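Just scan this pair:

***
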Amino acid sequence: MKNIHIIGVPRGLLTYRDGILWKEFFTQLGFSYILSPRSDRSILEEGTARAVDETCLPFKMYLGHVQRLLGKCDALFIPREGGYTPREKMCTRYESLPDLIANIFREERLPLLTVSYDWYDKTNEEAVYLKLAETLGKTKKEGKKAYNSAKKVQDAWYKAKEKRQMQKLDSSKSKVLLAGHPYVLHDAYMGSELGKILEKFGVEVLYTDYVNKKSALKKSYDLSRVIPWLISREIIGASLLLREKVDGIVLVSAYPCGPDSLAGELLQRHLKGLPVLSLTLDAQSGTAGVETRLESFIDIIKYQKAGGYGFKN
């Protein structure tokens, strides 16, 4: 692709998982990289206007972020990620993302950049990014160097998050794990306020996506060997790894997410003896009205730690 200088990335979905990799990769190749603004109500409303009714909240938000990048970049990076193994796939939304965006914004004729990997292709992450570099007119050597550098930066970022989170486990404060997709937990309009609310109540807040992904994935098979969604597995595995180290878990999902509804139900049935709160965020309320529920949940944890309810011996 020619005449590409500025690459735009919508601040949503897998940007909260791989955005560091993408930014470093494109920057190393000499391109400018811009993110859409932080999520707010107006971005959600713009995305909702583009979506059909049954669309999940995170995808509506993603469409709003695409809208905000129109006219501000030479191409949009919209990855197609299907997963690397038959047993650890991605949600169909990720598998069809470039096609969905191209169709919904067909009148704008957006120039799209993408990577595409699916378990049946028997490929790997490095290979698809080397192919992307070639698409952008770079050599294989340049692509490999950019990918390796980007991967190191991303790995270092996650390791720092993991280390900081492990240090929180030594705190004398009550500890609550927020379990959910990264783009729900950390989105400025959807879930990021939850952590701030809990911290206001004097709680140490931990996140499932800051648990080592390989360890979480392996642990998830203790609960189920048939769940096909990779990120759901990471959420489940992280929750199981930390269940004995936290005082409660808040399961956070965005309406109407099918994988979350199944994974959340499985976890609630399995995590007996530990206080668990299930929160479903929707387009109408966001986190409005959640503070009271979280405060009540913290009261339950405190009462349980004082010997009430009999959750733990």
